[in-house]
């Protein structure tokens, strides 16, 4: 057995471990709960808990924790040891079914968007038995959902699990109407491609902006960036390769299917991509992946940056969310087959997605919104903020036929010959790929490319699941009443294509022409997180989330509040950090340099020698002028921050103030500082430069 087989899932209480350690009746009962959602009886939970504890202790664990995902966007955990005292002054190791199933962390200190007051502290965590427990840092980690005392969702996982049930219910209705009597469950699957930057830890430690905000608030454009396109898929440096190797091994131990690794477009940027998993498991795994990458980076004297735009002017980082629907008996519902025009099942599910995306673009947009992503969308290698779907030539042709009547043909794939006899002909796909599309069909799945690199993928996936469940529900309603099934299917497909074809765009999403065309089509172009947040209080959006039991209106409104509150806090922190660095690092350094320059000029003048010192004097004048401008902009930013601090109006209006006053003034201040960086002697400049950070790894 090779090393990978030996270590893979070695730290997971997997199905194989359960089958080995649980009595047959207990294993069968637990599997029934996992697969069918039946209630887990207390006596069964006790047996499972005891087996989990024994397994964990054998592997060195001393504690257990309910591992959950609050609205902070990261994970949370409270660790309790297995020990309980005995009457003779010793301890025994115990773990009950009650402790496995339910936890009670303090709910008052997590973001709740008004669902909980500070004094209302009680909250609950509930075991998600569909996601396996695992070992991490000497603790047994139990994936859980997190809710308030009154049952409102306070986390990312709960609405995701609800949405998976909603889609399963509606997809089964469609399949049953099509005559499928064997499929018992429909699941969504996801494979998130994770982009990130690695820089030397010493460089990170010298940048207060990276430490406090995750991105550089200052930094002049380096002489070389990514314009030579020599980093993408380039040879991986040994130091980075060692890091990647250890990350793979740590992820494999946790049962995470880490598959692909490579250099990305920007210098110091990389990507890790796993094989797809069930959506809730994939979400858990992605949270672990981000945590593991940071921990392993520290061991290699590196720092892993997950911010969407840590460096201005070069490629930002995203998380491409590869989403599909499959059945328990092995069908991929988004697999077109060799003749898509004849595949009614595929076309129905494809059109359900098309209609969903066109009807609820604002929900998809807010699911990919955060302060960091505002820097990225529309920039290098990132899709625009306009939601559209890329289908490719083959499927676009099929839909054009459907609009006019039944489709009768599909463009077929061919062979690609390279012109070298020793190279074999390559099978050529029926359509090209489009890297500028935010929502692209890529063969048997959709790739949602807008998702922020630092974010949980739970948000975008519960939105996708819910809106597709809604359109599948509408399709099922019609199919179940149909007297002529084929005619009804054709009518459904034709109606969707005619009314929602505006969302399909196969062209260049980066172009200015597309922005104008999208506006003509009536597609929204939502520029910032603040404006995107409104989607969570939109009546239509709240109605669909409530209809399918994913979020109540109160829960949706709370997420609107949380999104804006988080945005406002982030921009405030960035503004305060900008001021601190400008006043305590950059301005003193520039003063020191101009003083040195002035002393040099005076020293030369004192010699009495008539020499040309115009270079020195012009440099001193230019730098001093910029320094005065920088100082003025510091004062203006201080006033903008003070205005926001004292604002007592609506949270949305405060967000707009932070976005269009505070943030814009930060950029104005930065422009002066970045220009000064190019003029001041590097021995005086107090910060590692972009060249230092991006090329000295």
From TrEMBL:
<dbReference type="GO" id="GO:0006542">
    <property type="term" value="P:glutamine biosynthetic process"/>
</dbReference>
<dbReference type="Pfam" id="PF12437">
    <property type="entry name" value="GSIII_N"/>
</dbReference>
<feature type="domain" description="GS catalytic">
    <location>
        <begin position="156"/>
        <end position="586"/>
    </location>
</feature>
<dbReference type="InterPro" id="IPR008146">
    <property type="entry name" value="Gln_synth_cat_dom"/>
</dbReference>
<dbReference type="Pfam" id="PF18318">
    <property type="entry name" value="Gln-synt_C-ter"/>
</dbReference>
<dbReference type="Pfam" id="PF00120">
    <property type="entry name" value="Gln-synt_C"/>
</dbReference>
<dbReference type="InterPro" id="IPR008147">
    <property type="entry name" value="Gln_synt_N"/>
</dbReference>
<protein>
    <submittedName>
        <fullName>Glutamine synthetase, catalytic region</fullName>
    </submittedName>
</protein>
<dbReference type="InterPro" id="IPR022147">
    <property type="entry name" value="GSIII_N"/>
</dbReference>
<dbReference type="InterPro" id="IPR014746">
    <property type="entry name" value="Gln_synth/guanido_kin_cat_dom"/>
</dbReference>
<dbReference type="InterPro" id="IPR027303">
    <property type="entry name" value="Gln_synth_gly_rich_site"/>
</dbReference>
<dbReference type="InterPro" id="IPR040577">
    <property type="entry name" value="Gln-synt_C"/>
</dbReference>
<dbReference type="GO" id="GO:0004356">
    <property type="term" value="F:glutamine synthetase activity"/>
</dbReference>
<feature type="domain" description="GS beta-grasp">
    <location>
        <begin position="62"/>
        <end position="151"/>
    </location>
</feature>
<comment type="similarity">
    <text>Belongs to the glutamine synthetase family.</text>
</comment>
<dbReference type="InterPro" id="IPR052725">
    <property type="entry name" value="GS_Type-3"/>
</dbReference>
């Amino acid at each position: 057995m090779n090393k990978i087989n030996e270590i893979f899932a070695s730290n997971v209480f997997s199905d194989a471990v359960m089958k080995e350690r649980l009595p047959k009746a207990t294993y069968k009962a637990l599997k029934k709960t996992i697969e069918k959602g039946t209630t887990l009886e207390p006596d069964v939970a006790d047996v499972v808990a005891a087996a989990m504890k024994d397994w964990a202790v054998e592997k060195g664990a001393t504690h257990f924790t309910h591992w959950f995902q609050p609205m902070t966007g990261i994970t949370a955990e409270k660790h309790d040891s297995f020990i309980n005292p005995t009457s003779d002054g010793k301890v025994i190791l115990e773990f009950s079914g009650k402790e496995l199933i339910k936890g009670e962390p303090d709910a008052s200190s997590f973001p709740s968007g008004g669902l909980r007051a500070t004094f209302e502290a009680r909250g609950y965590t509930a075991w998600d038995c569909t996601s396996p427990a695992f070992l991490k840092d000497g603790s047994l980690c139990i994936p859980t959902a997190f809710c308030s005392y009154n049952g409102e969702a306070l986390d990312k996982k709960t609405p995701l699990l609800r949405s998976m049930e909603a889609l399963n219910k509606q997809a089964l209705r469609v399949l049953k109407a099509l005559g499928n009597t064997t499929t018992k469950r429909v699941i969504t699957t996801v494979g998130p491609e994770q982009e990130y930057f690695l820089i030397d830890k010493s460089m990170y430690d010298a940048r207060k902006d990276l430490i406090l905000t995750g991105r550089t608030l200052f930094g002049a454009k380096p002489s070389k960036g990514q314009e030579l396109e020599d980093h993408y898929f380039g040879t991986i440096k040994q130091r980075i390769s060692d890091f990647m190797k250890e990350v793979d091994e740590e992820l494999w131990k946790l049962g995470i299917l880490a598959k692909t690794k490579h250099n990305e477009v920007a210098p110091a940027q990389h990507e890790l991509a796993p094989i797809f998993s069930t959506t809730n498991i994939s979400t858990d795994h992605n949270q672990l992946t981000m945590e593991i990458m940071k921990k392993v980076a520290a061991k290699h004297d590196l720092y892993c940056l997950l911010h969407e735009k840590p460096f201005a002017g070069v490629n930002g980082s995203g998380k491409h969310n590869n989403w599909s629907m499959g059945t328990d008996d092995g069908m991929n519902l988004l697999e077109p087959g060799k003749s898509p025009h004849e595949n009614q099942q595929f076309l129905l599910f494809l059109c359900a997605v098309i209609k969903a995306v066109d009807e609820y673009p604002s929900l998809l947009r807010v699911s990919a919104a955060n302060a960091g992503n505002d820097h990225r969308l529309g920039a290098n290698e990132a899709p625009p903020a306009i939601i559209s779907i890329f289908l490719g030539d083959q499927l676009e042709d099929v839909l054009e036929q459907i609009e006019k009547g039944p489709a009768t043909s599909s463009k077929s794939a061919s062979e690609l010959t390279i012109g070298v006899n020793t190279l074999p002909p390559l099978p050529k796909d029926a359509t090209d790929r489009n890297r500028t599309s935010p929502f692209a069909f890529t063969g048997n799945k959709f790739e949602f490319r807008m998702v922020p690199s630092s974010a949980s993928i739970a948000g975008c996936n519960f939105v996708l699941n819910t809106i597709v469940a809604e359109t599948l529900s509408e399709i099922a309603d019609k199919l179940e009443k149909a007297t002529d099934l084929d005619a009804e299917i054709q009518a459904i497909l034709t109606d969707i294509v005619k009314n929602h074809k505006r969302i399909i765009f196969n062209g260049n999403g980066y172009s200015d022409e597309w922005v104008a065309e999208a506006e003509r089509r009536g597609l929204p172009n939502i520029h910032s997180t603040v404006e995107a947040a409104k989607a969570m209080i939109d009546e239509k959006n709240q109605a669909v989330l409530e209809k399918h039991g994913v979020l109540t209106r109160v829960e949706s409104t709370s997420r609107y509040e949380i999104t804006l509150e988080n945005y406002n806090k982030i921009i405030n922190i960035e503004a305060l950090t900008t001021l601190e660095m400008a006043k305590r690092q950059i301005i003193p350094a520039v003063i020191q340099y101009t003083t040195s320059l002035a002393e040099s000029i005076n020293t030369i003048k004192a010699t009495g020698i008539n020499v040309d010192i115009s270079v020195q004097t012009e440099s001193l004048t230019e730098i001093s002028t910029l320094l005065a401008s920088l100082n003025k902009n510091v004062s203006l930013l201080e006033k903008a921050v003070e205005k926001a601090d004292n604002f007592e109006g609506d949270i949305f209006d405060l967000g707009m103030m932070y976005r269009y006053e505070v943030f814009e003034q930060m950029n104005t201040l930065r422009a002066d500082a970045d220009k000064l960086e190019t003029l001041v002697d590097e021995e005086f400049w107090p910060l590692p430069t972009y060249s230092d950070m991006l090329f000295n790894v």
